[in-house]
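Why do we bother with a discrete structure alphabet at all? Because it lets us treat a fold like text: something you can write down, compare, and reason about line by line. To make this less abstract, here is a complete entry for Transposase. Read it the way you would read a sentence in a foreign language you are learning: slowly, and without expecting to understand everything at once.
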Amino acid sequence: MIRPAYDTDLTNDQWEILRPLIPEAKTGGRPRTLDMREVLNAIFYLLSNGIKWRSMPHDLPKWQSVYTYFRAWEKDGTWMKMNDELRTQVRGKAGRNAQPSAGSVDSQSVKTARGGEEIGYDGGKKVKGRKRTILVDTMGLLLGVCVHGAGRSDHQGMLLLATFWSQV
């Protein structure tokens, strides 16, 4: 059954770029039955609309399956590989070197409603919660992101980023 298209669905051209970056199905066990394009469509729908996993529309794959792939790809670096490949292509089309030679760091502190994660107090912003530190290249394309307690200084956030991305 063909479902109606969502504005967050991948185009054929976008799918051709991302398809080779999706990990192959594991050998042994049950064969993969889900369409990986539909899994990505479901993830992009969820992220674009800011909904809960359990609120996933019923014409997309089951939320439990989509969540399982989302977390697995987070753990095995698939999302990072996708970002790196897309950034390389965008830089190439702009006539830039594939690898950036400079970057910019920024951070943002936000109040959090509940605990469980590392939280802290950002005295400069007077915010108790979490802080996001990002590293972008000179085109504004994401190189790295780190989320931590707001009590860490910007310098400490940059050091955390450096453990994940050390080419700048």
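What the structure line is telling us, in plain words: The longest strand covers residues 127-137. The beta strands are 103-111, 120-122, 127-137, 142-149.
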